[in-house]
Amino acid sequence: MDRKQALAIVQPHLKQSRFDHTKRVVETAVDLAKFYNEDKQKTEIAAVFHDYAKYRDKDEMERWIISEYLPKDLLHYHHELWHGPVGALLIKREVGINDLSILNAIRWHTTGKAGMNKLEKIIFLADYIEPGRDFPGVDKVREQAKADLDLGCWLAAKNTIQFLMSKNQPIYPDTFHAYNDLLITVKDKWREDMNGK
Ligand code: DGI
Ligand code: FE
Ligand code: FE
């Protein structure tokens, strides 16, 4: 499946504005994939389908979480978090994509998690920094994304946590786990830098 075919499959599932966002995420993710040596085709497909389930009915997503092997604690958090894990499941079922690395990148794209691999980090970050985003602090994250993938993801997780806290919103534990895990990596690099200079 190439990018064009994938976009044609996803389009009917999205509003125009979400489809435009998706195309920008694809461009951004492919850019990062080139920069960080990730497989271009996998990156493209993961990016195209990352928000596949964004407009599924809340009750339908709830039923999938209950009936399938998905983390039940999701039900105690905002339904905005469900479209990643449910999306991964539905893309496998409805589109027939079986590549686990693609499915996992989609699954974790909203919350992140500890121990993300390169493709997971690229989709997580591209979704945050695509040129249509105007989150507070996003320009700094864009800058860092090209300096260091882990630093970019860490800043994105940090900003999201700060934003959600400022709104007194609950935060899914995997987002904290992503933040903590990336912080260790980032700190190790800072230490190396300081020793090397
Ligand atoms: O689907 P998108 O709008 O492109 O972006 P997304 O998949 O990152 O999810 C959207 C929102 O989910 C994001 O703006 C913040 C919100 N959200 C709610 N609770 C949490 C959360 N995001 C994270 N990372 N962790 C949470 O616990
Ligand atoms: Fe999303
Ligand atoms: Fe998105």
UniProtKB/TrEMBL annotation:
Class of enzymatic activity (EC top level): hydrolase
Catalyzed reactions per annotation: P(1),P(4)-bis(5'-adenosyl) tetraphosphate + H2O = 2 ADP + 2 H(+)
E.C. no: 3.6.1.41
InterPro entries documented for this protein: Diverse_Catalytic_Enzymes, HD/PDEase_dom, HD_domain, YqeK
GO molecular function terms noted in the UniProt entry: bis(5'-nucleosyl)-tetraphosphatase (symmetrical) activity
Domain HD per the UniProt entry, residue ranges: 18-132
Keyword annotations of the record: Hydrolase, Iron, Metal-binding, Nucleotide-binding
SUPFAM superfamilies: HD-domain/PDEase-like
Residue spans crossing the bilayer: none
Protein name per UniProt: bis(5'-nucleosyl)-tetraphosphatase (symmetrical)
